[in-house]
Design a protein that fits this description.
Radius of gyration of chain A: 17 Å
Number of strands of chain A: 2
Largest interface: A-B, 51 and 50 residues
Number of helices of chain A: 7
Strand order of the largest sheet of chain A: 1-2
Helix content of chain A: 55-70%
Distance between the termini of chain A: 31 Å
Structural class of chain A: mainly alpha
Oligomer: homodimer
Strand content of chain A: 5-15%
Largest sheet of chain A: 2 strands, antiparallel
DNA sequence: CAAATTAGTGGGGAAGTTCCAACGATTGGT
DNA sequence: ACCAATCGTTGGAACTTCCCCACTAATTTG
């Protein structure tokens, strides 16, 4: 594995996938949501109510997939959906109280898993890793 | 994205997937191989000839999938396949000269892409990132 | 020798992700 | 009033990942 382990992208991908998987499994158990549902709730918690297309754009999700994601969240009553009075093509998606609670729970679960997976690192190193990965991520969009 | 960008796993996964994707596209063009083919060639280049099961184990690939991967590499004559005299159940998979050349080319392509994706980082930071990600990766297997 | 184990094969399938093409409803520009 | 663009929606194709079962050949174990 020397060659592969010397390639940053390979290691990053492996760690990322493993972490994502672990988190997805935990989230499925505890608040009973998927990763995409969590991501959508997080965006709504950050930005407040938004249109579906805005959420899809922010998350890099196809609009058609966002529809199905919203269907799920609506069914579980984690978000509410109203027509935007200013532009009746758009929806105004907002967190319900239950959605906010679910998000808070989920965020705790994610943090817990992350603490576990990052346990080989000191607090300083964790901050470093996030900072470096963040820099690379920022460079991606261009 | 504040919440999501504050989660190391999320950023790592995003960067990893983007990098992997980019690399896969380039490898498909230039030496004309897939990521899994590259990984197998890399393992063979590192370790020398090996049995399929050993390769499958090392790469975390299902044995039955490894068969199909070997079929491809054999068809392109990048590896050779002989029965192991010591245990005739096993194959002895080895790089052909063409396989070695292809691997060298591919490794160059990967390095080039990585230099591009890691361009926001200084050399020191790149080393840091690889080291930290490596630590986390080492902790995963347990 | 008989039984259990291991290496490779072939087949297949479930689940998830990504992407696209087409459509109705609504809006903004001209 | 008309045309182009946008938002949400439906349906589905293509692809990857991961995994399981049954089977042969060869080896090791009891």
């Amino acid at each position: 594995m020397e060659t592969l382990l010397g390639m940053t992208t390979f290691v990053l991908h492996k760690v990322g996938v493993a972490g994502r998987r672990e988190i997805a499994e935990r989230l499925a158990v505890r608040p009973g949501i998927t990763l995409w549902q969590f991501a959508a709730l997080a965006e709504l918690a950050d930005q407040g109510p938004a249109a579906q297309s805005a959420l899809a754009g922010g998350l890099g999700l196809d609009p058609s997939d966002m529809v199905r994601l919203m269907d799920e969240l609506l069914y579980d009553e984690l978000v509410s959906r109203e027509r935007d009075p200013d532009d009746r093509r758009r929806y105004r998606i907002a967190l319900t109280p239950a959605g906010r609670r679910t998000f808070t729970t989920a965020r705790g679960v994610v943090q817990k898993v992350e603490n576990a997976t990052l346990s080989p690192l000191t607090a300083t190193e964790r901050a470093q890793l996030l900072k470096l990965a963040g820099k690379v991520h920022a460079g991606l969009t261009r």
